[in-house]
Amino acid sequence: MSKFRERVFSGVQPTGGVHIGNYLGAIKRFVAMQETHECIYCVVDLHAITIWLDPRELEAGIRMITAAFIAAGINPKSHIVFNQSQVAEHAELAWVFNCVARMGWLNRMTQFKEKAGKDRENASVGLFAYPNLMAADILAYRATHVPVGEDQKQHLELARDIAQKFNTDFAERIAALGYGEAFFPLPEPLIQGPATRVMSLRDGTKKMSKSDASDYSRINLTDDAETVAQKIRKAKTDPEPLPTEVAGLEARPEADNLVGMFAALDDVTKAEVLKEFGGGQFSRFKAALADLAVAKLGPIRAEMQRLQNDTAYLDGVLAEGSHRARALARPTMDAIKDIVGLVRQRS
Ligand code: TRP
Questions:
Q1: I need a surface site. Which of 101, 193, 224, 266 has the fewest CB within 10 A?
Q2: What is the pLDDT of residues 221-259, one digit of tens each?
Q3: Tens digit of each residue's pLDDT (9 = 90 or more) over 259-283
């Protein structure tokens, strides 16, 4: 595994279902990175409980994301797939980072403001400290590259700020213990691709979400072919024909979203999609998009179903992945204890 110098870490929350936005924005890119990087993919269950979640839903969600990872093509033997709570080092390092990050930094996090809503006093402390745990996820492995959606950019910047502050606050110890000038690398976000941000099928200005009240706003990886086709047929559009140039998608969020989905599913650019469908009506384009979505998602759905019926296998993958993840995170955590001055057992 260590033939790659660059290490990728990313996480997906096991809350609710998995939709095409999770697939195109995250999982599909995770699959591609396996060719070039050492990859660690985590089901972030500790993040999922920052907002109340039914325990049965959480269990099912953890296994569903694991199944989606594998069904989409992540290889849990050559890379690492695990759930966060099985590697205690995440929570352990998050505490240290709670003491590195500043209240002011966290107060600026837009995701907290969105998720906490009006009743901020009633949000969990965990929801506020969420970005510190995310920084711990990444830095416990000293990961260098983090594929995430646009909405996670601010959290990545915070992780860099934490890494930087730790490196300077403890610079003397870091050098004295032989770790050189910096203990943590500054992790880079990888945000790219035509559909990193898939929007709701009902409102092209809103992100596709598992918590949207309307199931017609999203395509779930568990939807059958007929449902997928129907949701695409009913997706909101505008009355104009499709533009012939990418610039013509501006200020047309629904058209832009559907063209972006097509491009990402087919691994082409939006310009190439418009070369074929530009100037035409939505009906023909939607029919083609439905066929494409069914062709790409159908096999993943079938494999997910098969895997989800085999919880013993999925739990085995997570146990084995956690074991291997812990073997990487433990030495980092021990080094951090030495740097901070937390006396530890030596074996
Ligand atoms: N916050 C991320 C999201 O909601 C999930 C996440 C948790 C994550 N820890 C991470 C992503 C570490 C990348 C790296 O999408």
A1: 224
A2: 999 999 999 999 999 999 999 999 999 999 999 999 999
A3: 999 999 999 999 999 999 999 999 9
Ligand 1 site: residues with CB under 6 angstroms? 9-11, 13, 44, 47, 134, 137-138, 146, 148, 152, 155
**Domain boundaries, given as residue ranges, for the chain:** 7-196+311-340, 215-306
Q: Find the DSSP H helices in 170-310.
A: 171-176, 225-234, 253-266, 270-277, 282-308
User: Would you give the end-to-end CA distance of the chain in angstroms?
Assistant: 26
According to CATH, what is the number of the domain 215-306?
1.10.240.10
What's the token pair of residue 55? 């325990």
Compute the distance between CA of residue 5 and CA of residue 36 in angstroms, rounded to an integer: 10
Domains 7-196+311-340 and 215-306 share a fold: no
**196 CA to centre of ligand 1 in angstroms:** 14
Write the single-letter amino acid at 17. Answer: G
- Quickly name the fold that domain 7-196+311-340 has: Rossmann fold (3.40.50)
- Site to substitute for ligand 1 among 10, 22, 141, 146, most atoms within 8 A of C-beta: 10
Q: pTM, whole model, 2 decimals?
A: 0.94
Please report the atom of ligand 1 found closest to the CA of residue 44: 7
- Catalytic choice (165, 206, 207, 296): 207
Name which of 8, 124, 18 is nearest 62 in CA terms.
18
d(CA 346, CA 195): 48
User: Which amino acid does the sequence have at 21?
Assistant: G
